[in-house]
Amino acid sequence: MAKTMQEWFEDYLTKEFYEGAWRFRGTEFMRVVQLKANEHFVVVHLSCGYGWVKSRILSDHYGIDNSVRMFTGQTAAEDCIKWTAFKAREVIETVVDRVQPYENNYNKYLKALRGE
To answer: Each residue of 33-60: pLDDT tens digit?
Structure first.
């Protein structure tokens, strides 16, 4: 059975979260992950400290506001991964819907990509 985009993002984020290399930045650990689908990408900054995990989805280069959310509690990591995969899928689908009508005309495509 084929995985959906969100399931693939969740699997990839889980692997990167638990097995990836984290950098220490003063009071928190930080990890940057790039999620790509349909030739478009979303950059995700994951950070964590004592008792919390934060996800920041950078999508302003597509003209979409960045999304930030902090999670606490026993299931913070799992909740963060699920929310991040969901929001990343939303961003990718929005961008694909924007640019699909303009695939033949490259200039219109670039304007649609930026949300103009």
So the answer is: 999 887 888 999 999 999 999 999 999 9
